[in-house]
Amino acid sequence: MPLRWDRQTIGCVDLHSAIPRPWCPGDLAAATVLARVVAGHLATDATLRKRQQLTEQLENALASRVVIEQAKGIIAAEGAVTVDEAFDRLRRHARRHRTSVHEVAAAVVEGHLHLTPASPPRAPD
Q: What CA–CA distance (Å, rounded) separates 83 from 53?
């Protein structure tokens, strides 16, 4: 018995009997209802999994963005630069070290990394 949802076959239900016998119309009707219920549950489960995955991805993106914004603020304040320049520094550092902007931002926020430019060397007096 095929499991169909949205004009697609997504599985099947096998019918078994303890003894060989033909399936009567009532048996087939009950199996058809069972197949529709199972298909509905499978489709609902798939939809819920997709929504949960999307929710997790959005939560991770938001959390990552928060860390990046915090790092931009720290760099801007420490280096007396705009937040756009602070982001450019994050991005350049990430590219140079082949890591993600989020990882660089986390290191800045945790105080392990400072992306302010070094003071220029002083001219001799």
A: 32
Q: What are the C-alpha distances in Å from 107 to residues 96, 111, 119?
A: 15, 6, 21
pLDDT confidence band for 116 (50 / 70 / 90): confident
32 touches 57 (CB < 8 A): no
- Residue 71 and residue 90 in contact, taking contact as beta carbons nearer than 8 Å: yes
Q: Which two tokens stand for residue 101?
A: 């902007």
The structure's pTM equals 0.57
Q: Find, among 22, 1, 5, 31, the residue nearest to 13 by Cα.
A: 1
Mean pLDDT of the chain: 89
d(CA 72, CA 75): 5
Give Cβ neighbours of residue 72 (< 8 Å, ≥ 6 apart): 83, 86, 87, 90, 105
Report pLDDT digits (tens) over 18-27. Answer: 998 998 999 9
Return d(Cα 20, Cα 13) in angstroms, integer.
17
